UniProtKB/TrEMBL annotation:
It catalyses: (6R)-5,10-methylene-5,6,7,8-tetrahydrofolate + NADP(+) = (6R)-5,10-methenyltetrahydrofolate + NADPH; (6R)-5,10-methenyltetrahydrofolate + H2O = (6R)-10-formyltetrahydrofolate + H(+). This is Bifunctional protein FolD. Pfam families: THF_DHG_CYH (PF00763), THF_DHG_CYH_C (PF02882). InterPro entries: Aminoacid_DH-like_N_sf, NAD(P)-bd_dom_sf, THF_DH/CycHdrlase, THF_DH/CycHdrlase_cat_dom, THF_DH/CycHdrlase_CS, THF_DH/CycHdrlase_NAD-bd_dom. Pathway: One-carbon metabolism; tetrahydrofolate interconversion. The lineage of its organism: Bacteria, Pseudomonadati, Pseudomonadota, Alphaproteobacteria, Rhodobacterales.
């Protein structure tokens, strides 16, 4: 491997440190403690793990954490009533409704019921519109984390060719908007893109978010390019023993890391940045709601 490793664990810890420092200052100078409410409907085990982890880290940076666990059969009316109450609650600066929701609940309706100023996921249609028109928005956490790592590695991104592989609303599309905002020349590629290896070979920056294990090959990568791997795929790992598995990204790390200039590993790359950016967004939402100066280096 010749590429520089972009360590998401170290970077995320530094983001959380910055958030904690700013939160301590807010408490001391203004008597305000940022608060994050997380709503979990049902008992999906993976979602429960995420929510517990979010709650723990929220408290660790000095913020208030409010967890609302609702039964899987919760009605849309009841869920919307909770969101209304959280929208009106002055102690709650950020609201996150854990996805996916049970099938009987309309995800778009629920997300768009959140006050856009408290939408720390950046999924509300108003925030999507604000981001795409270059206005101040709440920005989805995973692409925000990717942007922070890219800015840290490159300094300016201006004029660079960026290829985003994947067109999801949560990662691909907002990532492309953020890179455009930093004056990259942006291509959004996806599963139907013709000659994908050729498209990727033009990129100074590759962001892979397709959800296919080890999909992007080393010989697709322009020598020296920066590769950000958003994928988290679990694959069988018989070498670890019968029935064992391991996590890999959307990029074939072994081949790509011999060609790239810099690369994020999986695990330990983009993953840890997502919750760090959720905390950063909660702090940002709190500062905006009170008219305080926004934290530097923690926003798009
Ligand atoms: N489920 C998995 N990741 C996320 C996320 O980033 N936000 C929400 N709301 N739900 C998720």
């Amino acid at each position: 491997m010749s590429a520089t490793l972009i360590d998401g664990k170290v970077f995320a810890a530094s983001v959380r440190d910055k958030v904690a420092t700013h939160v301590a200052r807010l408490k001391e100078a203004m008597g305000v403690t940022p608060g994050l409410a997380v709503v979990l409907v049902g008992d999906d085990p993976a979602s429960e793990v995420y929510v517990r982890s979010k709650g723990k880290m929220t408290v660790e940076v000095g913020m208030n954490s409010y967890e609302h666990k609702l039964p899987a059969e919760t009605s849309e009316v009841d869920l919307l009533a909770l969101i209304e109450a959280l929208n009106a609650d002055k102690d709650v600066h950020g609201i996150l409704v854990q996805l996916p929701l049970p099938d009987h609940l309309n995800e778009a309706l629920v997300i768009n019921a959140i006050d856009p100023a408290k939408d720390v996921d950046g999924f509300h249609i108003s925030n999507v519109g604000l981001l795409s028109t270059g206005q101040k928005a709440m920005v989805p956490c995973t692409p925000l984390g990717c942007l922070m790592m890219l800015r840290d590695h490159h300094g300016s991104l201006s004029g660079l060719n960026a290829v985003v592989i994947g067109r999801s609303n949560i990662v691909g599309k907002p990532m492309a908007q953020l890179l455009l905002g930093d004056s990259c020349t942006v291509t959004i590629a996806h599963s139907r893109t013709k000659d994908l290896p050729e498209v990727v070979r033009r990129a100074d920056i590759v962001v892979a978010a397709v959800g296919r294990a080890n999909f992007v090959q080393g010989d697709w990568i322009k020598p020296g390019a920066t590769v950000i791997d958003v994928g988290i795929n679990r694959i069988p790992a018989p070498e670890k023993g019968a029935g064992k598995s391991r996590l890999v990204g959307d990029v074939d790390f072994t081949s790509a890391s011999t060609v790239a200039g810099a690369i994020t590993p999986v695990p330990g790359g983009v993953g840890p940045m997502t919750i760090a950016c959720l905390l950063a967004n909660t702090l940002t939402a709190c500062c905006r709601s009170h008219g305080f100066a926004e934290p530097e280096g923690l926003t798009a």
